[in-house]
Design a protein that fits this description.
- The complex is a heterodimer of chains A (285) and B (336).
- Helices cover 71% and strands 2% of the residues of chain A.
- By secondary structure, chain A is mainly alpha-helical.
- Chain A has a two-stranded antiparallel sheet.
- In chain B, α3 packs parallel to α7 and α12 (265-278) runs parallel beside α15.
- Chain B has helices at residues 2-8, 30-53, 56-79, 86-102, 108-130, 135-155, 182-204, 207-217, 219-224, 229-255, 260-263, 265-278, 285-303, 307-321, 325-334; strands at residues 172-173, 177-178.
- A two-stranded antiparallel ribbon of chain B has the order 1-2.
- In chain B, β1 and β2 (177-178) form a beta hairpin.
- Chain B has 15 helices and two strands.
- Chain B is globular and about 50 Å long.
- Chain B has a single domain, classed as ABC transporter involved in vitamin B12 uptake, BtuC.
- With 336 residues, chain B is mostly helical.
- Classes of the chains: A mainly alpha (285), B mainly alpha (336).
- Chain A binds chain B through residues 33, 81, 84-85, 88-92, 94-96, 98-107, 109-110, 219, 222, 225-226, 228-229, 233, 259, 262-263, 266-267, 269-270, 273-274, 277, and chain B through 82, 129-130, 132-133, 135-137, 139-141, 143-145, 147-148, 151-152, 155, 265, 269, 272, 276, 305-316, 318-320, 323.
């Protein structure tokens, strides 16, 4: 029972971490609160579903293709719409992505209705391992593994590589970075695409566990908000750690006090805000 | 949430052109003053005549959302704080008022006060942790806090889970007039709306309101002048929450229902759109925005077009093309 819920918590935490990571990348780079992050999660899942049902392309190619498509769509939206918001009050960026969220979700509800569509678990990951104290479905282990590897790779790319250094420089001081001959607007578009693609990847991974539906991801973004507020808005590491922790805490709460499972992360956020308004890994500007 | 809001509105008797007033309000130069007085007179006349032009219950519901949008705009327009959690106060008060009417059998006046009291308390609690952060952080924190109330609405023993509180009795106003009479219902709601609007008008034009505007313009300077900016923001937040609660309590009486839709974050989103579409920088804009959005939701409910898609499209268009909102654009055109 405890281990089962802990595993469910770890799975949820993997999704939380991926989503919060994408969100934090976009916020850190562009200063945009992307409420549509949940939409791109949904689009990632739908992308995989459409590839399978319309083109007969299976899980493994979809795992690459669908996030890529989501990322490209995100880059197109950044180029055409979101980039117009940079000079305005930050609030407009949030409102624009909220409009995008409503519009895209509404369109998908119109086209596909709200009922969930099953997405099969790929053959190679069917079944599970009996660990003695619990049964571990292979696919769930795979999700946790992919999520952890992706999170670590993204963190490494941003904090330790030349590309990451350039990205951080573009955030820190865009004018000076441009003076060095670096195309900052293109970097921002790229960064937005990466953040969105992470949500798309989470969506593809989620397909076989939950069902694919236009409504998926809508509520997820509020949890992501709580995660990045607790983790500290600018902190990539905070997003990953708190994302995983929240999933596990939720799982534990389900064991001991099921009614509180939905509430617990928001109560934690409330308490953290009282004690550390800047978040656990953040600093107040 | 927009999808289900049509369920609150009876489907018979589609409203005719019964939109409430569309007058920019703020006093301008003396030449335009007359124009504004005329527009205001038209507005008041429309407000009085509305139940004869359109379905009274629909207009009454519209006025509840107009009050909610005005209460929300008290924060956005004056202090520059975008709250993404006003559904918590609106819906929280809606539930408490519904419970007080249905289970405790209180008269509407007292039930509405109970609702407002809860909204005020929630406002104080949420405001205390959120006003210390600005801009985007404030929006995110209010949204996440409001989500707690949404979950609570499903889990508390008296809320009726997914169905909400249904068949809430209306009772009598002042112990005399039966609120089941649609005209009594409408004019009661209109009176509450006007009272709330006047409070907001008074606050906007008070010293307190001026200080809030100054904080929006230049917070560090206000701090250096010795103002306790957090206390002022918190006061504005609590006032806004209380008025949102009044709107929610009245809505429960009007549609005889308090449902999870009222506390859902989509309601908070709708309210933002109402204020933005009408004109967040103006006092009257939110009323226009609420009229447009509510009417749109009413008609779209039958059309087969997805409400979210249309609302989202309007949201995007509004932000890209006319950020001042309808009333704001008209006003800046008139005053050019």
């Amino acid at each position: 029972m405890i281990f089962g819920q802990l595993l469910v918590g770890l799975i949820n935490g993997s999704f939380y971490a991926l989503m919060a990571l994408g969100f934090a990348v976009i916020f850190g780079l562009l200063g945009i609160i992307n409420i549509a992050q949940g939409t791109f999660y949904m689009l990632g899942a739908f992308g995989a579903w459409m590839l399978l049902n319309y083109a007969g392309i299976g899980y493994w190619p979809a795992l690459i293709l669908s996030p890529l498509a989501a990322g490209l769509l995100g880059m197109a939206l950044e180029k055409t719409l979101i980039s117009r918001m940079y000079k305005l009050d930050h609030i407009y960026g949030l409102l624009l992505t909220f409009g995008l969220f409503m519009f895209i979700m509404g369109t998908f509800i119109w086209l596909f209705q709200t009922a969930g569509r099953p997405y099969p678990v790929p053959d190679a990951l069917r079944g599970g391992w009996n660990l003695g104290f619990m049964f571990m479905p292979k696919y769930r282990g795979w999700v946790v593994l992919v999520s952890l590897v992706t999170c670590f790779a993204t963190w490494y790319a941003i904090e330790k590589t030349a590309l990451g250094r350039t990205l951080r420089a573009a955030t820190e001081n865009p004018m000076l970075t441009r003076a060095f001959g670096i195309n900052v607007p293109a970097l921002l578009t790229f960064g937005f695409g990466v953040g969105v693609a992470l949500a798309g990847l989470a969506g593809v991974l989620a397909g076989p566990i939950y069902t694919v539906s236009p409504l998926m991801g809508g509520e997820l973004v509020i949890v992501v908000f709580a995660i990045v507020v607790v983790g500290g808005m600018q902190s990539i590491l905070g997003a990953i750690v708190v994302g995983l922790a929240f999933g596990v805490i939720e799982g534990f709460t389900k064991v001991f006090y099921p009614q509180g499972a939905n509430l617990v992360i928001f109560i934690i956020m409330f308490l953290v805000l009282l004690v550390k308004p800047a978040g656990l890994f953040g600093y107040q500007k | 949430m927009t999808m289900a809001s049509s369920a609150d509105t009876p489907q018979t008797d589609a409203p005719q052109a019964g939109l409430p007033p569309t007058a920019p309000h703020e006093t301008a130069g003396s030449g335009r003053r007359i124009l504004y007085v005329v527009l205001y007179a038209i507005g008041v006349a429309l407000l009085l005549a509305a139940p004869f032009l359109a379905y009274p219950l629909f207009v009454a519901k519209l006025l509840c959302f107009a009050l909610l949008a005005c209460a929300f705009n008290l924060l956005l327009g004056m202090v520059g704080l975008l709250s993404f959690g006003h559904a918590a106060f609106f819906g929280g008060a809606a539930y408490v008022c519904g419970h007080a009417l249905k289970v405790w059998g209180l008269p509407f006046e007292l039930a509405a006060l109970c609702g407002m009291a809860v909204a005020t308390a929630l406002g104080a609690l949420f405001g205390y942790v959120s006003v210390r952060r600005q801009g985007l952080y404030f929006a995110m924190i209010t949204l996440a806090l409001a989500q707690m109330i949404y979950f609570l609405a499903f889990q508390l023993p008296f809320t009726g889970a997914e169905d909400g509180l249904t068949g809430v009795p209306r009772g009598r106003i002042l112990g005399l007039f039966d609120l089941n009479n649609q005209y009594v219902l409408y004019y009661t709601t209109a009176a509450i709306f006007v009272a709330g609007y006047l409070v907001i008008y008074r606050v906007t034009n008070s010293t307190f309101g001026q200080i809030l505007k100054a904080i929006r313009e230049n917070q560090p300077r206000m701090i250096s002048l010795g103002y306790n900016v957090h206390a002022y923001k918190l006061a504005a937040f609590v006032l806004s929450a209380a008025l949102a609660g009044l709107a929610g309590a009245t809505k429960t009486m009007v549609v005889q229902l308090a449902s999870p839709v009222d506390v859902h974050w989509a309601t908070s989103g709708d309210v933002i759109l109402m204020a933005l579409l009408g004109g967040a920088g103006t006092l009257f804009g939110p009323v226009v925005g609420a009229s447009v959005v509510t009417t749109l939701q009413f008609y779209l409910a039958d059309s087969g077009l997805p409400i979210q898609m249309v609302i989202g499209g309007i949201f995007i268009a509004c932000i890209l093309l006319f950020r001042q909102g309808i009333v704001g654009e008209i006003k800046s055109y008139l005053e050019r």
